[in-house]
Write a structure and sequence with these properties.
The protein has 360 residues and is α/β, with parallel strands linked by helices. The chain has a single domain, classed as Rossmann fold. It is 36% helix and 13% strand. It is built from 11 helices and 8 strands. An 8-stranded mixed β-sheet has the order 1-2-4-3-5-6-7-8, sandwiched between helices. Helix 3 packs across helix 4 and helix 5 packs antiparallel against helix 10. The longest helix has 23 residues. About 4% of the residues have low confidence. Keywords: Hydrolase, Signal. This is Alpha/beta-Hydrolases superfamily protein. InterPro entries: AB_hydrolase_1, AB_hydrolase_fold. One of its GO terms (molecular function) is hydrolase activity.
Length: 360
Amino acid sequence: MIALSKIALVSAVALLGLGWAYQATRPPPPAILGAPGGPPISSPRIRLKDGRHLAYREEGVRRENARFRIVFIHGFSSTKESGFPVSQELVEQLGIYMLFFDRAGYGDSDANPKRCLKSDATDVEELADALQLGDRFYVVGCSVGGYPAWSCLKYIPNRLAGVALAAPAVNYWWPLPANVSRAAYGRLHARDRRTFWIAHHAPALLHAWLAQKWFRVSPIVRAERDAFTAKDWEILTALWRKQRESGQVDPAKATQQGTYESLCRDATILFGTWEFDPTEIENPFPDGEGGVSIWQGRQDKIVQVEIQRYVAQKLPWVRYHEHPEAGHALPDMDGIGDEIIRELLLGESELHQEPRAQDA
C-alpha cells in the first residue's frame, strides 16, 4: 500500500507538472483594443493589408513641406510617445518630418499573431505608403527597434533613403565567431543570460518564465538598476521623471494588450533563429546616394560592444560610431540625438568613426 501511495503521489505530481507545462506554453489571448472592457484607442491608425491597424504620431514640419521624412522605430517596452531626442532647431533648420508608430502588439497597434522579422519591415513600408512618404524615406531604430531596422535593410532596401541604428539590440545566436559570442554573452548578468537562453531555446515558455515569482528574471527586461551604467541611470531616471510630470508617456500603455504580444514576441524574434545573417546584407546604397550608421556606447551593459564591432567590421559600408563614455542611453546624451540625425540626413558627424578591430 505504501508503494502504491508513493506511485500515486509521483503520478499526481507528474500530471500537475505536465498540466503546468501545457498551460505555460499556451499564449494568453491579447486584450482587444477598442472592445468592451478592452483598452481604448486614443491614436490615429492606418489599416494594413491583413486587416490589422498601426497607430502613429507625427511631429516636425508638415509632411507635404518636408525636405526629409524619417520613420522612428521604438525599443523594448516602449511606444511611439517616447519620441526621439532631436532639437526643434534642427527639425526646422533641415525641414524634418518625423513619424513615430507603435509596433505590432504595443500601445494602440493591433497584435500580430504571425509577427516575424519580415512582417516588421512590411509594416513600416505599408505605414509609409499609407501616409504618402514617397518612394524613399529614412529609418531610425533604437535599441530593440534596431532589429526591425535590420529587417528593413534586408526586405525593403529599395524604399530606404538612409538608416541609423542607435544602440541596436544584438542576437547572441547570430553566426558569430566563438570568441566574439562567448565574450559578449559572458559579460551579461546571469539573469539576463538565463532569460535570453529561454527566449532562444524554449520560446514557448518565455511568458511563463517572466510571469513566475519564484526566481528573479532579467534586469534588462525589468529595466532594473543593474542593467545600466551609473551615467545611463542618471540620464534615464531624469528622462522618466520628466515624462511622468508632463504626462506625455504612460508606462503601462506599452503592454496594455498583454506582455505576450509585446515583450515576449519582441524577445523571441530578436533572440530566435533569424532567416538572414545581418553581416551578409548587401549595401543598399552602392552609389553613395544614402548611408547606414551604427551608434554604440562602449560602456553599454545591455548591448555588448564586441558584437557591434564585429558586425561593423563585416559591413565596411556601414559608418560605425563608438562613444567611449556612453552606455545604452547614448541617444539621450546631450547633443547626440542631433548628431545621429544630422549624419543620417547630411552625412556629417563630429563623432569620429571608430576602429573596427574587435579589441579596439
